[in-house]
Every structure is written in C-alpha cells, then in structure tokens.
Amino acid sequence: MQMTIVGAGAIGGMIGAHMAAAGHDITLCDSDHAHIDAIRANGLTIEGPVAHFTVHPKAIYAEELQGTHECIAVAVKSHHTEAAAALIAPHLSFDATLLTIQNGLTLETFTRFIDRTQIVTAFINIGADLMAPGLIKQGNIAAFYVGEPFADAVTDRVRRLVEALPYAQPTDNILGYLWGKEAYGAMLYAGAVSDLSIADSLSDPRYQDLMIAIAQEVLDQAPVKPEGFDGFDPQDLEGSLVRLSAFNAKSAKSHSGIYRDLMVRRRPTEVTDLLHDLKGPLTTHVGRLIQAIERGERTCEVANLDLMNAYYRAHRYAEPLHAVVRYLDAPLRAPEGPLHGYQIAVKDIIAIAGAPLGNGNPVDMAGPPSTVEAPIVSMLRSLGADIFATTSLLEYALGCPHPNLPDARNPVAPALTAGGSSGGSAVMVGVGAGTLALGTDTGGSVRIPAHYCGVVGFKPSYQHLPIGGITPLSPSLDHVGILATDVATAALCYRALTGAIATSVASAVPRLGFISNQLDTDLLDPTVAEAILGALAVLKSAGYEIVELDAEPFDQLDLTFETIVGYEALQIHGPQLELDREHFGEETARVLTLARSITEADYHNALRQRAMGVEAVTAGTKDIDLIIGPTAPIVAPGQNPSPDTPEGYLEGVMTRCYNLTGQPAISIPIPGSRLPVGLQLAGGFGQDLALLAWATTIEELLQKG
C-alpha cells in the first residue's frame, strides 16, 4: 500500500516504520524539521521491548507536500487537526481515503475540509514516545481498531487498511472505541497532573473514586455505546482500574504522552480539545490544572491529584448539602511552603480576588469579581495552600439564611442543619473535600458548625489572624477561624499563618475548670449531656483535675453581647437597610431593624460592662489552664434558629463569651455520640499554642475512650 502519514511523531512514526518494514510505500511528513532531517540522514529507528529496527522511508517537511495522494493518514495532536486538514485537503484525489489516527473527537473539524465519505477513523492505544529526532520507543502492543465513522459496517477499504496496518483490527463501532478512549484518556489527563506513573495513578486507593468519577462523567456524555479495550470496560470501571494498572505496569511507557508534553518536551498538550469535547466539571478542573502547568504556574506533582480529589468530593458530597458557592480552578499559590498540598475552602464573606464576595446574599453573589483579596487568603497562598472553593453562609454572618438560598445541611444527618454562619466550611471538612476551611466567628460561628458536623473548629485569640478584606459584622468581636479534620491540622495551619513554633505541653496535665451551670443536665440535650459527662470521666481517669467555676462573671459578661453586636452590625449594614430593605432577606432585615432601638449610650455602657466582665472572668480563672464544657447545649436542629429567638440565644450561649473576652477557644468532636457533639476548650488570651497542644492530647484521650 502507498500511504503518506502526516504527523511522523510517536504514533504516526511507529506505524509508518512498521509498514515500511513490511514493504509498503510510506512517506512520512512532519513540520518538525529536525525529525525529518534525522530520518533522511539515518533512517527511523524503533526501539523498546517490542521491536528494534531501522527503516529508511521517504521523509518530507509539511510544506513540501505536493501532488495528489490515494491515501493519507493523519496522526497529529488534536490541537493541530485544523492545520493538518487544511494542509492535506488539496492533495487528496476525489476517491482517496483519509485515515485519522488521533486522540479526541476530531471528525467535525475534518468534515469542514474533506468530504465525509472519504474519511476512515482509527483508534489506537499503543504506547509510543518520540525520544529524539529519528528515534521512537514503542512501549507495548495494544488495541488498534479501524472503522467507518459514518457507517455501521466493516467495508472493503477498512479491510484493506487493516491488512496493511500493524496490529490493526476492523470494527463496525469505531466511535464507541473513541468514546471509550475519551473516558480512559480523561483518567490519563488526571494522572498526568501528578508525577505518578500511569499504573500508580490508577492503582493508588486515594484516587480510585476520583478516577472512576472522571471516567463515568465522560461515558455519560457518549452518544454511542462505548467500547472496552486492553482491560478497560465501561461497564466495570472499578475492575478496569485493576486491569489497566496491571496492563500499564508491564509497558515500557511508564508515563502518558500528556505528562511527557508537560514535563519533558515542554510543549502544549491537547487539553484545549479536551475542554472543547467534554463539558463535565471534573474534566474541566483537570483541564484548567493542565493549562496552569503549561503556563508555568504549577508543576506535575501529587498535590495536584489531591486538589482534584478535593474538587471531586466537593462535587459528589458537599454540593448536595448546599455547601459550595463557587469553585476556583487551578488557584494561584506558592510552589512550596508549610501548607503545600493542603486544599482550603473559604467562607464566602472573605474577599478572594477575581471572585464575587457573596456574603450569603443573592445580589452580592451575582456582583462583579472582587478586585482585592483578604490578607488571610494571600497569606495562605504564600504558604502553598490551594484556595479551591468558596462556601455558603448565613446572610452577612448575622445568623439568618436568605430565603432564596438553601442553608448548608449536615454531613452526618442531612435532614439537620450544618449550623451557622460558617456551615458550608464545616460541611467541606466533614465530607473530606479538603482537610481545612476558613470561617468567621463573631459569637460561635466556627465552633457551633464544628460541633454540629463533627469536625474541629478553632477560634484564635482576637486579632491574632487578620480580619481585613472580610465583610464585618461586629468588628470588636469578629474573628477568623479554622475548621479542620483534627486538632493537629488546625494547629499546623495556625502556626503557618502566625510563624509560631509548636508548643509541647505533653508532660503537663492542665487544670480544667467547668462553668457550673453549663453542666446542668436539665439545660443540655440528653445526647450532649451524655457525651460531655463521658468525656469528663475519660479526663478524670487520665488524672486531670477538674474544678467548678462560678458562673456569675460569665453570665454578667454575656449580657453585653447582643447590645454590642446589634449596635456594631447596624453601623455597618444600616445605610444599605435605609437605602434598600429588599436587598436583605426578611429575617436579616428584621434583626437589623430591631437593633435601631440600641442607643449610642447603650453601646458605650455595654463596652464598659464588657471590660469589667472580662476582668472578672480573668480573675476567676487565674488558676485554671483551660475552661472546658459543651460547645453548645443542643445537637444540630432541623433549621438554623434566628439569633433574636430563644432557640437562637440558647444555641450560642456557651460560645460567645470567648468572643467577648477575645481568648482562644476550640471545639473538638467527642467520639461515639448518636449525633456529633463538640467539647469546647478555652485558654488564656494569647495562649493559642498551649491550647492547641492540650487540645491535641485531649483529642487523643477521647478517641481512645
């Protein structure tokens, strides 16, 4: 057979070499002059475990293509399809055959230049790499099918091509093989963002659910019945991973051509075509990551696969719980740092450059992208963290959901609320979409969702983390907080942000104090009472001294909270309320309107009372290392109660004291409860590292039981 192959790289060159060795009249055509020059001078060599030989076919530059040809094969990268089609169209005789041998769905492009009746399509899974000009390594022998893309029959011309091509077989469903390769290829794209081999990326248990989801996302878009090959079975994706891993482990081609383009050849990949052909969210995330690698903003590493896993779990588990506001593709960040490899979701009240600052309000969520970024976000980026999503919240963190936005649901019991106002961030951590999230805490808005969702919620000392770039609620009480899977992760994040060195207090047994009325079992939900009493028993058995604290100073301090929050919130949101009450949800507008009754004199009196209350609390706890008690007296309810209701008061009664004092406080889960229950620990102001160290030890004791 006489054949001109346009694209003499890894696949085209390998096929052409085998055909030339079998005696066919082959012309190799390529725009890579160095490669063509090497073939002209020394021939084309195939090396590897499959075969080792050299042939001397005719080799021409792309611009030297002349005359008409009876059969032209195209084996260029998919993003070069249009240029290749324009090149060859004038050189096909009226009854010639065009054979496409490509990844991707390129037929539409060819039909703009060439009559569809002339086109035959091939699917190939043989692994080959262009190692140097004139040198191709063939890694294996694998599936190679040829068929009519616009007919469901095996024609004579398909049979003639199959007879001439190496390893080829005929099929009456070539599009099914192309869509099967799209699904498998999407997994290869995902694996290529890391530096793992194909076999390792497919077999690593950390990423198997991700790989299956990516493949299924593609298969769900297929307009034909996808076909299996080389261990890939569209009906058995889980088993496919095992088989494909074993298949690729035997191949001399360890990494995909995508990875080689990114890290070896440093040239553009076919990712633009991937994004054009496929519309699913996971393949879009993969595509954006690869584009970032092409731009030099990232490198191929396992941290990218961990980021993809966070995207996957957010889509699969957090979205149905209404926790996600927006995804941030391929986020910019430092290439290394103490938070490198950590994926962090951020409450949508914290400014992120390029994304609207949503504030749990539909109007703001549809607003223009922010031109500024909160310092806390910039700090996390500089530490290597991936800021990959924004999370839902109660409107302006005031305690009321907007009626047009569903509140975040609980990852343990979706019929219940995740809590407010940082519920979306708690959900993300709870479902494993990243190990960290940022929230804000004015009266318990990090710790209460952590308590409801069974995660760790840490509020540092006041102003220990910057609150600039965050929509304020009550500036004298607002804190940035950290939600995490465990205390150690929260502590790592806090130390990285503050530059602090870890504190070890493992040899010290802290003296614990509990506020007398917080262990009133008539006040506590039975589930909370049982869990807290059980936790105290564990600590007592471990030798911890637990003493009772007078509740009076705490109760007096608490009386100032609503006045301070109400007055400060109205100073911030009052102008918008006057201008356009409909901007707010009705509950938020009602709570702000009620705050109009608070006078400036009331506010300053509350500040004086607060100062005296802080002194009284400090004096009453001077011999105490940690204050311990429930994070909240109730388990997660069905809906978030409004802050001006008895239920809303009860929800935050045990957390807001530490916003008034500014001292650090953390909620850690107590294992074994029917519904999540958090144990709250509070340390002295500025003693954040000591609190975190003690909390780590207490967390371990509770887990051991």
From TrEMBL:
Transmembrane region(s): none
InterPro entries: Amidase (IPR000120), Amidase_CS (IPR020556), Amidase_dom (IPR023631), AS_sf (IPR036928), KPR_N (IPR013332), NAD(P)-bd_dom_sf (IPR036291)
Keywords: Ligase, Transferase
Molecular function terms, GO-annotated: glutaminyl-tRNA synthase (glutamine-hydrolyzing) activity; transferase activity
Domain (Amidase) ranges: 330-692
Keyword Calcium on entry: no
Keyword Ligase annotated: yes
Domain Ketopantoate reductase N-terminal stretches: 4-148
EC annotation from Swiss-Prot or TrEMBL: 6.3.5.7
Pfam families: Amidase, ApbA
PANTHER family reported for this sequence: AMIDASE DOMAIN-CONTAINING PROTEIN, TRANSAMIDASE
Record protein name field: Glutamyl-tRNA(Gln) amidotransferase subunit A
Organism, scientific name: Ferrimicrobium acidiphilum DSM 19497
Originating gene: gatA3
